[in-house]
Amino acid sequence: MERRCRGLAAGGFGPGERDRGAGTLWVVAFMAVIWMGGVAAMAVGGVRAARHRGDAAADLAALAGAAHAAEGRAAACRWAREMAGASGARLERCTVRGEVVEVRVAVRVRGPGEIGELRIVSRARAGPVGDMGVT
């Protein structure tokens, strides 16, 4: 009497025969989550970098304007605009009150994919320290 074991030779269920691709789907899903996390991290990093660039541009523009505030509003705002432009930002508003200069600048950053462009706004104020100045 011949006995046969259910196995590969007997045509039974061998390794991989019950596998219907579920592992592949889990790996693809996991890779998609990792990819989306990476894209989100890069987007947040880009926005934070643009925010810092905007803050620095606003600070420099306000300082440049305050340094030329004695020459009048036009000169102070012209210097502020030039400094903001050199820093990669655009001067949106320039206010001169005595020797104090307040500026608002905008930096544009492109978001990932179809998100589009974001506008980051930063403000700064510069002038002498004192009762009428920056405190």
Which labels suit this protein?
135 residues, alpha+beta, three-stranded antiparallel β-sheet, 44% helix, rod-shaped
How would you describe the overall organization of this protein?
With 135 residues, the chain is of the alpha+beta class. The chain has one domain. It contains 2 helices and 3 strands; from the N terminus they run ααβββ. It is rod-shaped. The mean pLDDT is 85.
Q: What form results from the Cα inertia axes? A: rod-shaped
| Largest beta-sheet characterization | 3 strands, antiparallel
Mean pLDDT score: 85
Query: Which class do the helix and strand fractions yield?
Result: alpha+beta
Biggest sheet strand line-up: 1-2-3
Count of helical stretches: 2
Distance between the termini: 103 Å
Q: What fraction of residues sit in β-strands?
A: 15-25%
What value does the Rg take, in angstroms? 31 Å
Please identify the oligomeric state: single chain
DSSP, total strands: 3
Query: What's the domain count?
Result: 1
Order of helices and strands: HHEEE
* Percent helix range: 40-55%
Given as residue ranges, the uncertain stretches (5+ residues, pLDDT < 50) are none
Characterize this entry briefly.
The protein is an alpha+beta fold. The protein has two helices and three strands; from the N terminus they run H-H-E-E-E. The chain has one domain (22-126).
